[in-house]
Amino acid sequence: MFKLSIVAAAIALSVGLVGCNNDNSTQSSTDKNDNLPTLAVLNYVDPLIGTNGLGNVNPSPVTPEGMIQPSPDNWNPTNWEGKGSPSDYHYYLNQLSGFSTTHISGAGKGDLNDFAFLPYTGFHSTAVTMDKQTEISKVGYYAVDLIETKVKAELTATDRVAFQRYSFPAGADRKVKIDLQHELLEQYGNHSRSIYYKKVADNAIAGARTSNEWGQWQTVYFYAEFSEPFSGHMAYVEGKQTAATEVGLADYQGYGDKRDRVRDVVTHLNFGDGDQPITVKIAISGTSIDGAMANLQADNNGYDFDEVVADNQQQWAKVLNKFTIKGGTEADKTMFYTSLYRTYVAPFVYQDVDGKYRGMDGKVHQADADFTNYSVYSMWDTFRAAHPLKTIIDKERAIEYAHDLMNKFKTGGVLPKWELHSDYTGEMVGYPAVSVIADVMVKYPDAFTQQDFELALKAADVSANFDLVITQDWVPYKDAWNGDKRFTVMTRHGEYAEQHGYVPADAKKKPQDGGVAQDKYDELVNESVSYGLENAYYDWCIAQIAKLAGDDAQYQRYMARSQAYKPYFDHNVSEYGKYGATGFMRPKNHDGSWVNNYPSCAIDGQGDPITPLPEGCDINDATSFDIFWPYRAEHRGQDFTEGNTWQWTWFAPHDIAGLKQTMGGDAGFLQNLDALFTASDKADTSQGDMTGYIGQFIMGNEPDHHVPYLYNWTAEPWKTQEYVDQAMKEFFHPTKAGLIGNEDVGQMSAWYIMGALGFYQVTPGAPIYTIGRPLFDEVKFDIDGGQFTITAENNSPDNIYIASVTINGKPLGNNYTFAHSDIMAGGELHFVMTNKKPVIK
Q: CB-side exposure of 69: number of CA atoms within 13 Å?
């Protein structure tokens, strides 16, 4: 049969080299199959890239934008005080705790990972060793042999249903353990708040789990059917065996529910001996067990595992074949298509087949026919490149995101920063949803109504000015578990920016400690520089929405707020000349004074720390939050977010001209860029998110992602080409450790895609792109209405410089820019490359 020939060929190819060019499909000549996309492109996708190191991705055989993501979770015996614990997948670990059904791609955080299934034999129901030599991870398919139990486990998925097939050794009893608690406790962990479990039939089980970590009452339901009835059923509740077939609260309410609840349920199912594999189909829902059951029953694959693999791969081939590439190496193509694959893992559809979905208010809603609810928006990361990329290659989806985010405001009362399964997390800085919405609206204004513009403006205005008055009754963050957490979702930073012109560094401190905090909510007004800079950009985005809505008063208000980045810049050539810079963004107190400098006696003439310290040099306060040193890196809760001022000084993408002026003009701007890329990469107090150094430029974290392109606003634009080329070559590799930082739900991969294409959007919300250095000789990709082509004449690894460039036959504008509207059907961006660096006169 056609479907089996595809799967057989695909699985056979998976043990070979990734990147071969032959077409592995054997399509029939029937009309039914004539329009199926070629599967050859799938050979350029390696889901194991980034599974070691900091990538934090997993090898789930997910469908494009699929809401269920089955994947192995490791058991790490070295963690949790040496006792071992379940952890996300890391290739170097070979212990398996189970195959759970929900995952986050590359966020480095232990959330989701609900409902872990583990096949076993005998009494070996604890962590088992994976035979890494047998492990296969490819598009639509994952498999591994388990050493102690000699079970072969295989995974695949449809949009809402995970398929797991277990092949047992001959004569062995076939058993499956389902761990409904399955908390990830390696570094960050989610915690089960309530678990419900029920045996539905002799071949079916169901349940629900409410947990918290990022999400405070993240709730997911499941329904599972097995290919055979089980003859044995044994459940453990809180570690104690029970004969009950239904335990826990079926209608747990989350906030305010005081009833006794169960937090730990493990079930063992015995299918007896037999010569057939056991296949389990698991469906999830955000609304109810009935919703999960309907999602499973809507699937028409029966237990045909191979057919699901084939359908999954066809879906991915359709997505990935948006691009055709000529030139480059096999490694380049593998990195490109794997990156494209990662950008379609999320946001994903998060609603049942009947259109029901859980809103941000925790209630079940019915979607209109033209609406789709999505989930997992890592927007602090993805507003920079992943969402702009979708506006280019998937216009309709990008428009749907904007409508979905506005609907999340309608159901939840505020825009999310980092949404997780219809739950607010309050994670990261500012209110980045306004960037995503503004960017789509300015590119496709005809896709939105006047009512849409007005709703977007209202959502942005409320979110940027979140205060106690409008949220005093807001659920779910005023809850019995965590107290009043409303201001971790949106904080008072915006209020300070409007009233004071910037966010003071001492706003978080109580008056008795030398600060100006008014109440407990001010204690969350931290990371003053990072919030202040980013919020200034977000306010500029709100101004663009206000312009579309025709609200001049709001436009003027938010344009004024967009200048709030300027007070942070300390222009002091005599002080910062030792770093080669004219100044830095630095924390500023309420009274206008700068936060204290690191003791000068501890720093040499180049700004590096002196070791050993000179006699009498007192640095007792050097670890205080109230210390400024350009190399001082901070994670969270101080004045910078996941970095230092070297990185954050550049975050004013909406006002490059103003940033230049603040730095002392064109010469100062160029001087500071050069200082960034040539600064010492050793003299910092680095923390985990700071990886991929070129000087103090950090490729491995998001705040710097636009910075190499800023040389296009100087007299030396060829340095953009140099540093983009260097970053792509040094920090992205088709290896297990091939991602320099967290994947962050598509952002790291999207940056690479844009770099490889040769252009980038420095300012989401302004429909303008600037160029970098194209990687391939020719790229064609689908856009609304046809195809767009990028060509690079005389391209080679050595020819990294641009001799000339045109868009649709015309020269680019100032700063090597072109408009979003120039990316048109039949259009072409044409580069002529050279190995000669321009001579500076």
A: 28
> Which positions ≥6 away from 739 have C-beta within 8 Å?
49, 50, 53, 54, 55, 57, 106, 732, 748, 749
Distance CA 250, CA 621 (A): 54
Where residue 746 falls (left for φ over 0; alpha for ψ -120 to 50; beta otherwise) is left
Triad 283, 284, 290: Cα angle to 5°: 90
pTM above 0.90, yes or no: yes
Amino acid code (one letter) for 31: D
Q: Tell me the pLDDT tens digit for each residue of 630-642.
A: 988 888 888 999 9
Take residue 781 and report the two structure tokens written for it.
Answer: 């990709």
pLDDT of residue 191: 84
Supply 737's token pair: 């450790």
Q: How many CB atoms lie within 10 A of CB 83?
A: 9
Tokens of 471: 């949220």
- To the nearest 10 degrees (0 to 180), the angle between helices 395-412 and 450-464 is 60
Residue 64 phi/psi, 5° resolution?
Answer: -60, 120
Can you tell me the distance from the alpha carbon of 720 to that of 729, in angstroms, rounded to the nearest whole number?
A: 14
Structure confidence by residue, pLDDT tens digits, 313-344: 999 999 999 999 999 999 999 999 999 999 99
Q: What angle do CA 491, 385, 727 make, to 5 degrees?
A: 115
What is the pairing mode between strands 810-811 and 801-807? antiparallel
**Overall fold of domain 45-299:** Beta-galactosidase; Chain A, domain 5 (2.70.98)
What lies within 8 Å, CB to CB, of 514 at 6+ separation is: 506
Residue pair 126/118 in contact by the 8 Å Cβ criterion: no
Q: Where are the domains of the chain?
A: 45-299
Q: Check residue 32 and give its pLDDT.
A: 43
Three-state DSSP class for 195? strand
Please name which of 440, 439, 401, 392 lies closest in space to residue 782, comparing C-alpha atoms. Answer: 392
In the numeric block, which tokens belong to residue 16? Answer: 């070979």
Decide: helix, strand or coil at residue 566: helix
pLDDT tens-digit series, residues 406-416:
999 999 888 99
Q: How far apart are CA 262 and CA 548, in angstroms?
A: 51
Length of the chain (residues)? 841
